Amino acid sequence: MPKIKSLSNACKVSFSPDGPISEEALEKVRALLDEIRPIDVGLDNEAQIARNWNSSTRQPNGRRGRNGANQFTSPIRYLHIHESESFSMGIFCMPPSSVIPLHNHPGMTVLSKLLYGTLHAESYDWIDIPDPTDQLQEISVRPARLVRDREMSAPETTILYPNRGGNIHTFRAITPCALFDVLSPPYSAERGRDCSYFRKSSVREPPVALPSEINNAEIVWLEELEDHQPPEGFVVARGLYKGPVIRR
C-alpha cells in the first residue's frame, strides 16, 4: 500500500471532528508522516531541483531569464490531497524567499512535515490575561510568547496544538521547500475555525500586568488583520497534486 494511503487510513481512525482522539493516536499519525518522502507524493523531481539549488544560480526575488535578468517571483503553490470533517492534508510548495505570513489554526492540531528544503520558522502562543483592561481591548492587541525562531531542514516533523506548540506562526523559505500539513479538524469558518492573520504591534508599554514567570524578551504584541484577510501581496496558487489519490 502506498505510504500516503497508510497515512490517510491512520488519520481516519485517529482523528474525529473534534481533533485527535488521543495522544497515542496522534503519535501513530506522526510516525507515519515521518516516513513520507517527496517521491510518495509526486514531488521527487521538485525535491531533486531543490537539492541542486543554490543562491548564485537563482536570485532570491525571482528566476533568471535567458539573458540572466530576474523574472517574476513564482507564487506559493498549494497541492490539495484530501479533506473530511475530521482532517485535511495538503502541501505548500514554496519558492526561495517566499513567505507564509503570521497566521493561526484556532482549535486545531497541526502536524507539519518538511519534505525537502530549508525554511525559517517563527511561532508564538497566546499569553492568557485573566482580566484584560479596557485600554488593551481598545487597541486590539494581545500578548504572545515566542516558541520557535529557527531554521528547519528536511526531513523534520513538528506538532502544534490548539493552545501550545506555536499555533500562531510564519514561514520564510530559504531554499525551494515543501511543507506537508495534516490538520485536525480542518479549517471551517462555520464552526469558528477561520484562519486569522496577524502583524506585530508597535506597543512597547502595554497597560496590563503579565505573569511574572514570562520572560519579557520573549513577548510580542500581535494585532489581528481585519476580516480574516491576509496581508496584501500574499498569493497562493492551486497546484496539481500528482501523488496517489486518496479515496473517501
TrEMBL record:
Residues 51-60 have a biased composition (Polar residues). It comes from the Eukaryota. Residues 51-70 are annotated as: Disordered. InterPro entries: PCO/ADO (IPR012864), RmlC-like_jellyroll (IPR014710), RmlC_Cupin_sf (IPR011051). The keyword Iron applies. CDD domains: cupin_ADO (cd20289). It catalyses: L-cysteine + O2 = 3-sulfino-L-alanine + H(+). Its EC number is 1.13.11.20. Its cofactor is Fe(2+). Keywords: Iron, Metal-binding, Oxidoreductase. The keyword Chaperone does not apply. One of its GO terms (molecular function) is cysteine dioxygenase activity. It is an enzyme of class 1 (oxidoreductase). GO terms for biological process: detection of hypoxia. PANTHER family: 2-AMINOETHANETHIOL DIOXYGENASE (PTHR22966), CYSTEINE DIOXYGENASE (PTHR22966:SF72). Belongs to the cysteine dioxygenase family. This is cysteine dioxygenase. It comes from Oryza brachyantha (malo sina).
